[in-house]
User: Fold these one by one.
Assistant:
Number 1:
Amino acid sequence: MTLLRTPPSHERFLVDVGSLEWRRKAACRLMPADMFFPAGVTGVACEEAESAKAVCRTCDVSPECLDFALRTRQEFGVWGGADEEERRAILKSRRA
Ligand code: SF4
């Protein structure tokens, strides 16, 4: 069991994210983290996000990564092939 703290806005402050072993297989493991955290969602940042998503599409652990980001309410960056707006939409659709 691995407990992680979520952002204060999240109703569950601690989330059990289980094993984090999947991170060893991450396609982005040796890439610059900045690539996955563009500053904003327009212009150049949008192009950077698309580059990151292209890497995610080749990643064997993309489902695990997205699940982690959703469960821990990651607020920024590209995780599991989804940017912050896409993750918000996924969470909203799950609540509907
Ligand atoms: S899905 Fe993307 S962000 Fe997640 S581990 Fe794979 S390459 Fe990295």
Number 2:
Amino acid sequence: MKLGDFIWRQSHYVRPLYHAYWQELNRKLCARKPGVPCVSGPFVAEHISTIGRIIKLGNVLEIGFNLGHSAYMMLDLGHASRVTSIDIRETDDMVKCVQQIKEEFSNRFSFFHGDSNNHDHWLHLLRSDVFQTGFIDGSHDRSSVQEDIRLCKRLGCDHFIFDDMHEKTGPGVIPAIIEEGGLILIALVGCLGVFRLADGDIFHNKP
Ligand SMILES: C[S@@+](CC[C@H](N)C(=O)[O-])C[C@H]1O[C@@H](n2cnc3c(N)ncnc32)[C@H](O)[C@@H]1O
């Protein structure tokens, strides 16, 4: 078996507790539908829980919200103090999920409808925020991921979580991290990669 396939398989192993948690989450948020390119399931709950024990997430900027499963879990599991999510789409299901998360977590959660790669119209809205972690899970094209890394750096993030590090679902993620540079790998948790900013990175400025 190739190493990549082994990593892919073991990343889907999950303890029973997280199956129940995932079911409850899907009861609250809209269940995922085919069409959005992502691989998800109870194992993501376990991975986010593990990451929360490795780094302090603090105030999180999430790029790519979809139906808010990761945003919800980061808040609910107590790992993020706040989450601000951005998504280029705004479907009826998404609006329902945004409302649900706002209802439960009130001012610990904000949502922006916008393109993370074209932030002229909305970046000023985030200027007063100080972020610690960028959760990068929007478009998985190399150039787009690279832009997202730059955006998170500009907004002060010193930790980065990349969903879909695997070539099957995120072919541009690893090339973008290598091309952009300045990030140090802390841990691989399933298909999520956790990185920190290298010491002395010169882009670590507020806009
Ligand atoms: C894999 S889903 C996100 C899943 C979510 N992070 C989670 O784990 O529950 C990817 C989302 O990124 C959004 N997206 C793609 N390109 C984007 C961009 N340039 N700016 C903002 N959002 C983008 C898509 O609309 C889609 O909803």
Number 3:
Amino acid sequence: MAMRLSVSDEPEGSWEKEYTILTVGNAGIGKTAVLLAMTGAEEPLRTEATIGLDRKTRIEECHGERIALQLWDTAGQERFHTNIGSVYQKADAVLFMFDIHNRSSFERLSDWVDEVERNNLKKSLVRFLVSTKNDLEPQVTESEAKARAAELGIPYLKTSARTGAGIDECCSQLAQRLHGAVARLLDEASSVTITEPD
Ligand SMILES: Nc1nc2c(ncn2[C@@H]2O[C@H](COP(=O)(O)OP(=O)(O)O)[C@@H](O)[C@H]2O)c(=O)[nH]1
Ligand SMILES: [Mg+2]
């Protein structure tokens, strides 16, 4: 098995910088399983229904620095939405997720895009489109998924918590986007205060 950096034995604060990542998408599409796989769980498919919010940490090396990806797991149910407003606001990145084996989860993506737009106005918000369960028969074609990502102007990544495919790739892409030189420059630019004319 490929070696993964996981956090269970990481002391708090053993990283230079941390970022808040939010996962969104319909219930049952495998969000929790992906986060478990990202953080080195032995059996990522043994998930329990997520209630409210849960956070997991993954450490990545980027430009010689250790950075923490704080991965927030959300429940897909409408009634929990009120609780996650603050995570939406502080999110540095969002993973829009759908199940490649569940067409309706792909068709409902715009609900999640709207939801994030209503709650996070950061110009520098990093966004990825991520399909899950790529070990199963696809109900959404590769070109449909890529077209949707192009429409949104964001990268598309394929994962499977079952096989581990795309899991490390997703984390390193996240780290690079969040912590890369370009991201840092954008961050600085967006923190410049603009005085409104009166
Ligand atoms: N075949 C397959 N099943 C998965 C995968 N990821 C999750 N599942 C199963 O899909 C169901 C829902 O997963 P879960 O992570 O709880 O979904 P969530 O509600 O989006 O957090 C569970 O029964 C998982 O075992 C995967 O990569 N492949
Ligand atoms: Mg869950």
